[in-house]
Fold each of these.
Amino acid sequence: MARDFTLEKYRDLCCCLQDRGFTPVTLSGHLRQPDQEGSRRVILRHDVDLSPKMALRMAELERELGIQATYYFRYPFTFDPAAIRATIRLGHEVGYHYEVLTKTRGDLPQALRLFGEELAAFREVCPIVTVAAHGGSRSPQDNRDIWNHARFGDFNLLGEAYLSLPDFLYFSDTGRTWSPRGKVRDSIRNGRSPPAEIRTTTDLLHWIAVTREARLSLNVHPARWPSGLGGEAMALGQDFLNNLVKGTFRRVRALKGSPATPEEPDHRE
Ligand SMILES: [Zn+2]
């Protein structure tokens, strides 16, 4: 059996979903054509927090399996026009992974202006009709709060990955576990939580085999799913480095007594 949180294990997960009759759809595809009664749908969402290259590998695997997924790129951290175009050519949807309230430290008018500017930069490359908030559990701001003061239509958008799927059961690989425990911000507001005992991908496969749920949304961060042992060792090393950097930031902050800086690396949600 493939090791967990590898591209090989992700292939097992995709095949299991397809075997159980779940049709993978993009977020915009779902919003444009809500499903008929009785059909099963899964939205495979990928937040490209760290590595457009690893996202492309996942996009190629999905193409091979006949799957359409939705990839959210950050600006400017993973805004890679070549990778974005390649993702579109593989049949996927690309959206904007926004973090404007974090960047502006909660300044709402400035955040909405920045949202418009960054969205325009994406639209120079490809059409964008859906967005997804970047988590940043250490940031005091919840980026989704901009929608308390704006409508999707103001930006010609159809929806938001956290906010537009209230009837979907949401799973996230944050923290290399599927369990919702402790994922306060990385969850659908007012949505249902998946069973807490589902931790590993094997747990998830067993659950998918017996569930009667018809609407699933899976947030899979490509950088957590490297191919093979070499890649896995590298990704774990990257996690270690990220934690080291964060620890240093926290210590510096504690010394200065200052709040989080918008530049603080945060690649986890
Ligand atoms: Zn993110």
Amino acid sequence: MQPHQLNDEIKTLLDLVSRKTTSLTESIMEMPVANYSDPQIFEQERHELFRNQPQFVGPSCLLPEPGDYYAFADTGIPVLVVRKADGSLGAYLNACSHRGAPLGDGWGQATNQRLLTCPYHAWAYDLDGNLAAVPFGDEGFTGLDRSTAGLRPLQVEEKHGLIYVMPNPELRFDINEVLGEIGPAFSGFGLDNHHYLGVKRVETQISWKLNMDTFHEFYHFDALHPETIAQMSYSNVCHYQQFGRNHLMSSPARSIHELEQQAEQDWEPRNHMSFVSYLFPNTVIFVVADHFQTWRVYPVNRDKSVVYHSMYIPQPPANAEEQASYEDYFQMINDVAVNEDYTLVEKMQRGINSGIERNVIIGRNEPGVQNMHRQIKECLASTA
Ligand code: FES
Ligand SMILES: [Fe+2]
């Protein structure tokens, strides 16, 4: 969002605050609780949403230099995305052609920025996925056609600072369709130029959709976070915008009123609101003040999910003190989610696991939660 758009966003939020209201949908949504627990729905989701739909990998600044890679297998298909020498990205099935070992796990760097080396027997691949070296190859692998023993390519796309990969090697996607114009809304947030501070992996006893629900409404701030988030942000106020399957929601900080006393050209709008964005199917990007965070949620089984919470700051910390202060802040945010949201939601999961049939009700003031469930349902219906 460019400066004038940020100012417009502030005006929209000031108006919502003054009228004590929020973006509203047409009607409430009711959904059987089995939607969170039905084994068939779960298997369909895991297969269609996580293997056959493009997956958000990270912002462009996750992989700034040639040889930087990110590898993950949480979709059920091991994937490795790497920055190549010409600045473009490559993506491969993360399985060595020899006996299938993954070439990396999480964030890493290729040997000398040039070679992806298998940890098992040290076969090495260049960043285009070609097999480049086989130790003891002349004798041990006589007759092997190296030209056909490269890594299996996957489709990867990068646009507006967002990286997406298709885990299923048989399928293709159109990045413009995937983004649905949410990309320009991120312009100015620095998805391509921030510094990657790190990631926290949290295992939860919560189904992946129940986990995602916690991020998509601002209705619970006063009740669940009275001493933390609600001290800084208004409860139940957000401006909702839809972009294809994705959405972007802005919400006001309590300090937003300070801007009413200032000339508009002096506003620093980013300090007085935050943004929560949903990227279908499983990602949340949280933009606040001078930095942003991503939360990627993956199913482990029907009632367990894992979250990768990553932090990106404007530039590398200047010294150890600055590093420690960012680390503390990162931990504090993670603690709020774990101690306040997940602790409660794990108890909700027990209610779901009880098997008692009932409906959940999603309010008109919870447009983000409604959208996520609607998009998942529509996607599954179109691929059934
Ligand atoms: S499995 Fe990779 S070198 Fe053997
Ligand atoms: Fe929360």
